[in-house]
Amino acid sequence: MASLIEELITVLEEEDKKYKELVELANQKTPVIVKGDLEGLKDITAKEQEHIEVLNRLEKRRVEAVQDIALVLNKKEEDLTIRAIIALLEGQDKEQNKLAEVHDSLRQTLSNISALNDMNKNLISSALEMAEFNINLLKSMYQAPELGNYGKDAYNTESSLNYGVFDAKN
Q: What distance in Å separates the CA atoms of residue 95 and residue 101, rounded to the nearest whole number?
């Protein structure tokens, strides 16, 4: 049982480390988004994807460790949270404290990454809104105003200007 708990602690520590690296990447992403540096954003996103692949493998190991612990304790896996395992380690202070410490650290790290991701999401949304506004502004600059000039057959005789968004010289 002790080796299973140590495996769980090891996996959680590795997950915490990878999530902290994701927090650093999210911090790097913020100024890149503000500058509108698409190439930098692409690079950071690629690095994040690599971290996520490692985290998926670690998560699989964590699930397997919890399954093994549940099997040894003859408990249902879905009832066996980290807090429940900490409570079951009564009398094993070293393992109990280490597991509680890594659990709290991981929760804090996940909270930080969630806040940063929300902020970056809002920045990207604002940047997209600004781009859409600029496109609409450019489109409206190249349209003639409606004047209400009608011909004898009651159709509008005013036509919009035929400017393209980009003028090219021949």
A: 10
- Residue burial 84-113, b: 16+ Cβ < 10 Å; e: rest: ebbebbeeeeebbebbbebbebbeebeebb
**Where does the pLDDT of residue 151 fall: very low under 50, low under 70, confident under 90, or very high at 90 and above?**
low
Cα(23)–Cα(28) distance, integer angstroms:
9
Alpha carbons within 13 A on the beta-carbon side of 125: 6
pLDDT tens digits for range 62-102: 999 999 999 998 888 888 888 988 888 888 889 899 999 99
Our measurement of the distance from residue 63's CA atom to the centroid of its chain's CA atoms, rounded to an integer in Å, reads: 22
- Other Cβ atoms less than 10 A from the Cβ of 37: the count is 14
The pLDDT, as a whole number, for residue 100 is: 93
Tell me which residue of 3, 1, 41 sits closest to 25, measured CA to CA: 41
For residue 54, what are its two tokens?
A: 């490692």
Instruction: Pick the closest to residue 115 from 16, 22, 11 (CA basis).
Output: 22
Buried b (16+ CB within 10 A) or exposed e, 51-68: eeeebeebeebbeebbeb
